[in-house]
């Protein structure tokens, strides 16, 4: 039969799309049967023989021979005289097989057929791609920077699959050039129309967890378990680890000698500061560890309200809170407790403005001018020193001190 462009492309589809023989033949048969239904009303009596490797396809229509003038369905039946033109010794009641040429379907049908075939191949390819990457969600993946846009980076993997790394999924310090390899986790796969949209993330906690698996053999082997990861991407992270083997120090194994094991992970994350702590079921101890590097003096937990009151020496407070409040925020996320920090041994201070009914406003403003805006800050200074550095009379200062002392004595 004629080797039309449609047939010539069978092998091309098979090679380009890597479709197995059985699937390709099923797609081809489905496409042709749809075309036959449109042309003849039914495809039940057609045999389709496909050899995709050679690009051969044959279509045979099977009909029953009936007497001349008795045809009720010309798709299922053929007159005796017409049958004998095919083979002169046919008789009524016998089956006739007649080859249908592609050209018989009509030019428009052939064009539609080819378009339908291409559509089915793409649909199959997209479905397989969706399934493939759906199984990879949460796993680390590497792809090459193909195109850099304002709101996202388009990556291509070794198979030519397109992966999107949105701006909000990038670490703030990330900077990539075209052709550079990028690592991240496959965060989600969505079907947009028939095309899968594959989203990569470098900010997800799962990325840090998977990096631990890749870089630390004990985590990969299951000897150490990563219990929970919380991150402020590019700034700070806390990782709780545990081991069923008492002989293993989970934190030491993850960090390595002089930080040798965790150094590669820190570098991958744009020098993100990573605290590794031992997980425990003891909530009081867990909160204490989560607030490291601060040293806690005492702690009170309300397990029902999931609140923790933490008391520290004044010099430890800034460590507990951390730069930008990152440390205390991550400690709360890691433990699930809302953490309140208190200075140990320091009574609650009071703003000078609270004494406006007893101390004149201009006096309060004079103290504020030299940076003393709370009761404690004033009481901590010597009266004679205050006389020297303010425009206030000694009697006025002594009266202010008396009022403030009475507040704390009460």
From TrEMBL:
UniProt subcellular location: Cytoplasm
InterPro entries per the UniProt record, alphabetical: KH_dom-like_a/b, KH_NusA_2nd, KH_sf_prok-type, NA-bd_OB-fold, NusA_N_sf, TF_NusA, TF_NusA_bacterial, TF_NusA_KH_1st
Pfam families, per the entry: KH_NusA_1st, KH_NusA_2nd, NusA_N
Keywords for this protein: Cytoplasm, RNA-binding, Transcription, Transcription antitermination, Transcription regulation, Transcription termination
Residues annotated as domain Transcription factor NusA first KH: 202-279
Domain NusA-like second KH: 285-344
Domain Transcription factor NusA N-terminal: 6-125
Coiled coil: none
Function: Participates in both transcription termination and antitermination.
NCBIfam families linked: NusA (TIGR01953)
Protein family according to the UniProt entry: Belongs to the NusA family.
Record text on subunit structure and interactions: Monomer. Binds directly to the core enzyme of the DNA-dependent RNA polymerase and to nascent RNA.
HAMAP family: NusA_B
Name of this chain's protein: Transcription termination/antitermination protein NusA
Native organism: Sungkyunkwania multivorans
Organism lineage string: Bacteria, Pseudomonadati, Bacteroidota, Flavobacteriia, Flavobacteriales
């Amino acid at each position: 039969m004629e080797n039309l462009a449609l047939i010539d492309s069978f092998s091309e589809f098979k090679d380009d799309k890597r479709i197995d023989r059985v699937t390709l033949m099923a797609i081809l048969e489905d496409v042709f049967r749809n075309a036959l239904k449109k042309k003849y009303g039914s495809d039940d009596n057609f045999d389709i023989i496909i050899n995709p490797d050679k690009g051969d396809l044959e279509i045979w229509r099977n009909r029953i021979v009936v007497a001349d003038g008795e045809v009720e369905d010309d798709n299922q039946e053929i007159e005796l005289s017409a049958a004998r033109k095919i083979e002169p010794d046919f008789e009524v009641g016998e089956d006739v097989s007649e080859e249908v040429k592609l050209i018989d379907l009509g030019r428009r049908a052939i064009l539609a057929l080819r378009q339908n075939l291409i559509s089915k191949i793409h649909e199959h390819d997209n479905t397989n791609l969706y399934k493939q990457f759906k199984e990879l969600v949460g796993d680390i993946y590497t792809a090459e920077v193909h195109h850099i846009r304002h709101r996202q980076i388009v990556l291509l993997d070794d198979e030519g699959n397109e992966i999107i790394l949105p701006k909000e999924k990038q670490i703030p310090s990330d900077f990539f050039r075209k052709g550079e390899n990028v690592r991240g986790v496959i965060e989600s796969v969505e079907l947009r129309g028939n095309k899968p949209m594959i989203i990569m993330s470098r900010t997800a906690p799962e990325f840090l967890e998977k990096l631990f698996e890749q870089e630390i053999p004990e985590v990969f082997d299951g000897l150490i378990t990563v219990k929970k990861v919380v991150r402020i991407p590019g700034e700070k992270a806390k990782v709780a680890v545990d081991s069923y083997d008492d002989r293993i120090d989970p934190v030491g194994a993850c960090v390595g000698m002089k930080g040798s094991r965790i150094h590669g992970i820190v570098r991958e994350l744009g020098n993100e500061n990573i605290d590794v702590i031992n997980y425990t079921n003891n909530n009081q101890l867990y909160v204490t560890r989560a607030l490291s590097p601060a040293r806690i003096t005492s702690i009170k937990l309300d397990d029902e309200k999931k609140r923790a009151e933490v008391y520290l020496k004044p010099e430890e407070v800034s460590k507990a809170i951390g730069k930008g409040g990152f440390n205390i925020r991550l400690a709360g996320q890691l433990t699930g407790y809302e953490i309140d920090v208190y200075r140990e041994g320091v009574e609650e201070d009071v703003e000078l403005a609270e004494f406006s009914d007893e101390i004149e406003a201009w006096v309060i403003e004079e103290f504020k001018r030299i940076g003393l805006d709370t009761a404690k800050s004033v009481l901590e200074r010597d009266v004679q020193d205050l006389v020297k550095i303010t425009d206030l009379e000694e009697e006025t200062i002594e009266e202010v001190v008396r009022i403030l002392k009475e507040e704390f004595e009460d």
